[in-house]
């Protein structure tokens, strides 16, 4: 179990620090709670001051009655739980990829194509060689330009339900390497000496997918759709992200997807047709009656055209489900704390909302007298924001907190700063925790699989928190080691 602390430092900057990695016997909520509390207590942390907790949506973590977040709130009642935003976004994407039949079939076929092409290191080498030859030919024809960092030879990437952003990267890799992928598949089909009948059959099936107009259409449709949410996915994984700005990013992504739904069809179909013409892929007559290739023809199939199927039943339905799922998983109305705090960065501060936020969610952090003073500070801040250039340009809660500290106005608006710090402490995603587990793979290799938990945790601490580790010089470490006990040799 990886433990990460999130706090706002003296300069008003959000920090997320890796604290420790703890071995647990099982993943039952009670076991995780005991292990977490024992570790925090051993470091003399005041658990009563915890003001936020963030995990994924697993029932043992997010359970309302017996989950870890519920057990933590029994001892720290104001440690409000936030389901990881990046995890929610991935769940929304996976949900759409499973609920829309052609999209679900596309991702299944995409995985199959990549598995066939990248099944061995030999095929991987063939793929990269074909890509290098293609780049060389395009450079000679003058269709692409050379330069530092350009025209890199890449490979196909696999998509995974638990890897954030992997679906988008997988789609982009196939679009970039579409032609060379077909070349490799042709080579497998034609090589009867080194490939078995089963291998040639799999390559033939994969090649058939790449010749399908529907496959190419969904490939470009999902690329356009995920391009809108990829910026959101990357933004949610930043350590310095605050929860109110994260909700604004989600709103922007919804608007962008809605614009794509209403106005993006013409540009999408142009890209698909151009792609099909470039690679000689057969296109259906969009005005002809639709006939399904997935099941036996039905009478109702002839009631609408191919264009209706691709535009309404596939393009619009997929986007409608994506937008609906984002609305469901990122509903601000269901998180009253966020809706009340959102006015702090708006042009007009709703003083009553901020006071209600403090009274309802943080009653132990403010006295009644401080709440009355908070009203006055909010009114003064609202007036000063119209005059002060720096304050008028503030767009996020994090900017407001840092600006108050940098300008020295945090003494005048100390209660406003306290509200900012409380809201900024709420976690947005578990990306830092996930990075901790990724770092563990570097140290706990097959040759070092028996290393102790303390050694593993200490090694990970130095690796993850490089910013702090770089502040120590070798001489100070030698002196501290020498002072532990007497040494025969001179250090």
UniProtKB/TrEMBL annotation:
Domain DUF4371: 1-67
PANTHER family recorded: GENERAL TRANSCRIPTION FACTOR 2-RELATED ZINC FINGER PROTEIN, ZINC FINGER, MYM DOMAIN CONTAINING 1
All copies of domain HAT C-terminal dimerisation, residue ranges: 409-467
Protein name: Zinc finger MYM-type protein 1-like
Pfam families xref list: Dimer_Tnp_hAT (PF05699), DUF4371 (PF14291)
InterPro entries linked: AtLOH3-like, DUF4371, HATC_C_dom, RNaseH-like_sf
Molecular function GO labels: protein dimerization activity
Species for this entry: Deinandra increscens subsp. villosa
Domain of life of the source: Eukaryota
Membrane-crossing residue ranges in chain numbering: none
């Amino acid at each position: 179990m990886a433990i990460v602390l999130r706090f706002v430092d003296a300069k008003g900057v959000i920090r997320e620090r890796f604290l420790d990695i703890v071995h647990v016997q099982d993943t039952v909520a009670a076991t995780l709670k005991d292990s977490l509390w024992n570790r925090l207590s051993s470091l003399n942390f005041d658990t009563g001051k915890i003001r936020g907790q963030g995990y994924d949506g697993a029932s043992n973590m997010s359970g309302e009655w017996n989950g870890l977040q519920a057990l933590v709130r029994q001892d720290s009642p104001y440690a409000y739980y936030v389901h990881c935003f990046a995890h929610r976004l991935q769940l929304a994407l996976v949900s759409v990829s499973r609920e829309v039949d052609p999209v679900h079939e596309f991702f299944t076929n995409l995985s199959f194509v990549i598995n066939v092409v990248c099944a061995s290191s030999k095929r991987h080498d063939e793929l990269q060689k074909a890509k290098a030859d293609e780049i060389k030919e395009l450079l000679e024809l003058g269709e692409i330009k050379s330069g530092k960092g350009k025209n890199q030879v890449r490979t196909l990437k696999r998509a995974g339900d638990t890897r954030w952003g992997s679906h988008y990267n997988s789609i982009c890799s196939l679009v970039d390497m579409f032609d060379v992928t077909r070349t490799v598949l042709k080579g497998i089909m034609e090589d009867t000496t080194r490939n078995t009948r089963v291998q040639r059959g799999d390559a033939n099936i994969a090649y058939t997918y790449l010749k399908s107009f529907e496959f190419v259409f969904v490939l470009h449709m999902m690329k356009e759709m995920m391009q809108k949410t990829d910026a959101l996915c990357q933004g949610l994984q930043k350590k310095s992200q605050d929860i109110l700005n994260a909700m604004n990013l989600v709103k922007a992504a919804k608007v962008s997807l809605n614009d794509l739904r209403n106005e993006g069809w013409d540009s999408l179909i142009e890209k698909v047709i151009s792609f099909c013409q470039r690679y000689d892929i057969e296109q259906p007559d969009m005005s002809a009656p639709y006939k399904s290739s997935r099941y036996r023809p039905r009478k109702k199939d002839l009631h609408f055209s191919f264009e209706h199927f691709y535009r309404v039943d596939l393009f619009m339905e997929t986007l409608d489900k994506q937008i609906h799922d984002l609305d469901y998983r990122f509903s601000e109305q269901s998180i009253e704390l966020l809706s009340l705090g959102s006015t702090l960065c708006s042009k007009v501060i709703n003083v009553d909302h901020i006071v209600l936020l403090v009274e309802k969610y943080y009653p132990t952090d403010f006295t009644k007298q401080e709440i009355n003073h908070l009203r006055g500070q909010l009114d003064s801040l609202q007036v000063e924001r119209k005059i002060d250039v720096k304050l008028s340009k503030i767009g996020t809660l994090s900017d407001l907190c840092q600006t108050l500290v940098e300008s020295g106005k945090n003494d005048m608006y100390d209660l406003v700063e306290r509200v900012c710090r409380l809201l900024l402490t709420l976690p947005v995603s578990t990306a830092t925790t996930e990075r901790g587990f990724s770092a563990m793979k570097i140290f706990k290799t097959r040759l070092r699989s028996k290393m102790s938990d303390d050694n593993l945790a200490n090694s990970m601490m130095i690796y993850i928190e490089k910013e702090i580790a770089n502040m120590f010089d070798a001489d100070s470490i030698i002196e501290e080691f020498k002072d532990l006990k007497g040494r025969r040799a001179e250090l």
